[in-house]
Amino acid sequence: MGSSKKTQTTKPIYEAQLTGAADTLKGVYSNNAANVQSISDQLGGLIPSMLDKYRLGDSGVNAARGFLTQTLESQPDQNPYLEQIVAQTNANVADKTRTAMGTRGLTGGTVMQDIVSRNLAENESG
Q1: For the chain, N or C: smaller number of CB within 10 Å?
Q2: Who's near 94: CB < 8 A, 6+ residues apart?
Q3: pTM here?
Q4: Are 94 and 120 in contact (CB under 8 A)?
Q5: Could you tell me the CA-to-CA distances from 24 to 15, 36, 40 in Å, in that order?
Q6: Dihedral of the CA atoms 109, 111, 116, 121 (nearest 10)?
Q7: pLDDT value of residue 30
Q8: Closest alpha carbon to 89 in 126, 34, 56
């Protein structure tokens, strides 16, 4: 009255070939385990120094970033290069404005001085 169950296992068609390939791969790895460990140790040793170099960044880029930050954050009277540029452009703006006014016969008056002053102020603020 009791039923007996039989467990049936099915073997893959290519079981022998798969087992043989797995054994071959295992043998190759076993024969090269020391080399694999050596390469792994070498790569592992390189990583901290690579991370340190990454964190330091490129010295040229860092210098340029520092220069730009200093230039942009400084006050105009603390940046002689910027002051020279502004002074030169102010002279150019004043000369061009006076020349343009002179060609229209409007030289020397307070209107001319007002126009020159406004143009210089616009140049400095720009």
Answers
A1: N
A2: 116, 119, 120
A3: 0.32
A4: yes
A5: 14, 17, 22
A6: 140
A7: 92
A8: 126
Q: Which of 95, 121, 98 is nearest to 109 (CA)?
A: 98
Structural tokens at position 123: 């140049």
Say if residue 20 is exposed, middle or buried (CB neighbours under 10 Å; 0-12, 13-18, 19+): exposed
Count of residues in the chain: 126
Residue of 43, 125, 48 whose CA lies nearest to 89: 125
The rounded distance, in Å, linking the Cα atoms of 104 and 107 is 8
pLDDT in tens, 10-64: 877 888 899 999 999 999 999 999 999 999 988 888 888 888 888 888 888 889 9
Q: What is the rounded CA–CA span in Å between residue 122 and residue 86?
A: 11
Q: Which residue has the tokens 């220069």?
A: 67
Q: Which two tokens stand for residue 113?
A: 């001085």
For 98, the token pair is 């006076």
